[in-house]
Every structure is written in C-alpha cells, then in structure tokens.
Design brief:
- With 216 residues, the chain is mainly alpha-helical.
- It has helices spanning 36-46, 49-54, 82-85, 92-108, 129-142, 158-177, 183-190, 196-208; strands at residues 15-17, 24-26.
- It has a two-stranded antiparallel sheet with strand order 1-2.
- Residues 1-21 are annotated as: Disordered.
Amino acid sequence: MDGSRETKSRGGRVKVEDKKTGEKVKYSTILEKMSREEKYHFIKEHGHPFAAVVGLPYFNPYGKVPLDDKLTAIIPKTVGLLSVSSGQRLDHSEYTEGRGVMRAAVIANIPDEATIDEGKFLTWAHFGPSARLKVYKYVYALKPYFYHFRDKSGENNWLLDAQAAGYLADSALYYKKSASVGTRSWMLAQSHDVSDASLEGSQRWLEQQLSYDGRP
C-alpha cells in the first residue's frame, strides 16, 4: 500500500485489512503517524516528494513559510484532487486540518453587506476582494504554507477559493435537505471539526521555530 487515496472529489483515507484481526482499518502513511514536530524534522531531513513534482527546491508545510513573494514560490493550480495538488496526498490529516482552518476563516469573515436573493444561499461570490483577503490572512496565520497557492497579484488563492466555494455549496445543500437547521449553525459546527488544541499546538510550533540555513 502506497498511501493512495480513494477516488472521491476530496480524497480520503483508504481502508486496508488488518492482518491480525482481518478487519478493515483506515490506512495511515508514515507522515500521518508522526506528530507535527516530527513531520517537520522528517521533511527537513529527507525532503518532501511534492517539491520535486512542482519543481521547488524545498517544500515543508509543517514549518514557517515566509509571507514574502521573493522568498515563497507560487505553486500553480493543477487538475485533480485538491489534496493532491496542494501536496497533501500522503497526509490527509493535515489536509483535513487545513480545511478546518479555512472553514473557521470563512465563518469569521462573512460579509455583512452580502445581498442574497430569496431562496438563494451564501456563496463564495458574495465575498468581495477585501473579505477574501481577510479569509486568506486568517489561514496564512495558522497554515502559512497556503501562501504557496496565491496568484502573482497576491489577491487570490486558488486552493482557498476552491475549498471555500465547495464548503459554502455543501452548507447550502445541507440547509436544503434540513431546513430546520440554520445554515450558519451548521457552518459553525463544521468549523470545529479540528480541535482548538490542535490549532493552538500548530500555532505554538510555528512561533517556536527558528530559521535554519535560510529554511523554516
């Protein structure tokens, strides 16, 4: 088993048979079995396979990434699963955590002035440039490697745009199926998929890191 993912729009962990029990269990890659700090040092020493795929000399989503156009290369959008095109094919737990941060960012920055027609729902198109930038900055503060997926202007981020658009579409679909539950309430519940402790741990780890040979 090489850690390949199910052929779903978002990816996901595959299940394999436990040789001892015969039961189907979720397969975990080497990275998924490590702590965040262990992942950082492992990638720092051995390199990340995604770096070769996108032609970068170095890619480490577990450490500090400078929010500087001169220091952090842009990774262009590719066709396929977002978990793969963002370098998280072998670490679905990190991809899931990143999506949790995105959801929290969207919830925290819903534009008050959004005009929604009757019978319609909030979409990513309702977020203007300033609102989107707030979402981006929120995510960059906790998951700075997302900065790799911006465009040359810095005013767009293809990964966050795709994730946010999909998330809001899902929330609208859920509301249509269960009108008794408010969309915002469901969105708030979804934003807590990733524990506060996990996010706080990520933030502390980023704050504690020191640069090494110019690399985070």
